[in-house]
Amino acid sequence: MKILLPDHKRWVHDSLMDVRWGDMDSLGHVNNTVYFRYMESARVEWLRSTRDTPHGAGQGPVVVNCFCNYLRQIEYPARLVVKMYVSDAARTAFETWYQIEKQDAPGEVYASGGATVLWVDFARQKAVDLPAWMRGMVEG
Q1: Chain segment 93-107, per-residue pLDDT in tens
Q2: Pick from 54, 64, 66, 71: nearest CA to 111
Q3: SS3 of 8, please?
Q4: Cβ proximity of 124 and 58 under 8 Å
Q5: Those residues with Cβ within 8 angstroms of residue 4's Cβ, 6 or more apart along the chain or in another chain
Q6: What does pTM read for this prediction?
Q7: What is the DSSP-derived secondary structure letter of residue 128?
Q8: Cβ distance 46 to 13 under 8 Å?
């Protein structure tokens, strides 16, 4: 089973990561909460590559909604490829999308998910317009 991403999404980043022994739960597969960490790690890696280092000063991204569809179990050991896509740049937010595959099984999706990212002025704790450079990254 493959969850399709929106047609208008744009690929922006692949992140490679290893499943750690501690990522598993008592049933011997990756715990459901850890998939969100994989997506977060890919998102932060991408943001750092765009020139934005997420921090608590000034303005930056905040996740306001996220989801994950679990399609296949992942067990230790495994090397993952987290494919990240973006879409739907709005005034203050954009969408991120993820597909998690095993590096040794390309094209076989183990999980897919997404997150709505809101651009926030941290001091004011208020949404602000996406910076032009970020809008350009999302729109291509």
Answers
A1: 999 999 999 999 999
A2: 71
A3: coil
A4: no
A5: none
A6: 0.91
A7: -
A8: yes
